[in-house]
Design a protein that fits this description.
With about 300 residues, the chain is an alpha/beta fold. It is built from 8 helices and 12 strands. The longest helix is centred in the C-terminal third of the chain and has 22 residues.
């Protein structure tokens, strides 16, 4: 799992119920990691040159900034209900939510978000800020839907890529920390091209293909099972699209983990089609792991 000594768990808040769900999850994650928790609210009004203090004759605590500071205090209080010993700080940071939280992620161990906040359209499955951060944050992003379940395995998507390996490491560490098992999901539909421009055969041996895909899965997990011998691991080899397989497995999971993109990603694409689909449809909290500059697995 990505690690920086002393780095906090960061949670973004906007006053929505989903943000408070995220605060409670972030507090548990910070306590389990023995890290501080940093509660951040992005205060956008200075960008519009709007007055954000109290209007004349209004109570001194009636301004926009005062309201922002109040919702941060409430979030900090909610976090302390989870763990009284947790070191929690609250911050109102001027700027729009997405760029503020991208900057926060550069010094964070984990960024926690509700799946959607106060903005956007009511029927969106995931808010635009969560999508943006999942693609651009410099640390793993945990997107929370409601109060997560305390039982069930950690599920991780495996495709044999380097970024998949980082997601696997994160998932093993989470499973060990939570004292639960890990389900490693590897899905395929047809033979994969070995490289750009390669022609996929029209006729192939299904049993031979399944054996090759099992080899990819086993080799991807080998080093991590040695590092975390206490974590029970179940291989899940599925002839289906990766997104469908992961969404189905997420039903009984306490956490689902994916890399930001894998083998099928176009060069320069920040969030792959599989991770994007799972972000919108997963039935558990979802961790999206991107390659972090200067980060080490731990």
């Amino acid at each position: 799992m990505t690690d920086r000594s002393g780095a906090p768990v960061v949670v973004g808040v906007d006053g929505s119920p989903t943000a408070l769900d995220a605060v409670r999850v972030a507090a548990r994650e910070a306590a389990a990691r023995h890290r501080p928790l940093r509660v951040v609210h992005a205060f956008i009004w200075p960008l519009y040159a709007a007055s954000h203090g109290p209007v004349p004759a209004a109570p001194p605590d009636a301004g926009l900034r005062q309201e922002a500071e109040k919702l941060v205090r409430e979030a900090v209080d909610e976090a302390r209900k989870v763990s009284a010993e947790l070191a929690v700080t609250g911050h109102v940071v001027d700027g729009a939510a997405a760029p503020v939280l991208v900057r926060e992620s550069r010094d964070g161990a984990l960024l926690v978000l509700g799946h959607r906040g106060l903005g956007g359209f009511a029927d969106l499955l995931v808010g635009s800020v969560a999508v943006h951060l999942s693609a651009r944050a410099d640390c793993p992003v945990l997107v929370v839907r409601g109060e997560p379940r305390a039982d069930g395995p950690v599920v991780v998507g495996v495709d044999g890529s380097a970024l998949s390996d980082e997601a696997i490491g994160f998932a093993f560490a989470e499973a060990a920390q939570r004292g639960t098992s890990l389900v490693a999901v590897h899905a395929w539909r047809y033979p994969r091209p070995a490289g750009p421009g390669d022609i996929v055969p029209l006729v192939y041996d299904a049993e031979e293909l399944a054996a090759e895909e099992e080899r990819v899965l086993a080799e991807s997990l080998a080093g991590w099972t040695e590092r975390y011998p206490e974590v029970p691991v179940r291989h899940r080899l599925v002839a289906a699209t990766p997104a469908r397989a992961l969404v189905e497995e997420s039903t009984n999971a306490q956490l689902t983990v994916v890399g930001a993109h894998g083998r099928g990603a176009f060069r320069g694409l920040l969030l792959g089609s599989v991770s994007h689909a799972v972000l919108h449809h997963a039935r558990s909290p979802l961790a999206i792991v991107r390659h972090r500059r200067g980060g080490d697995a731990s």
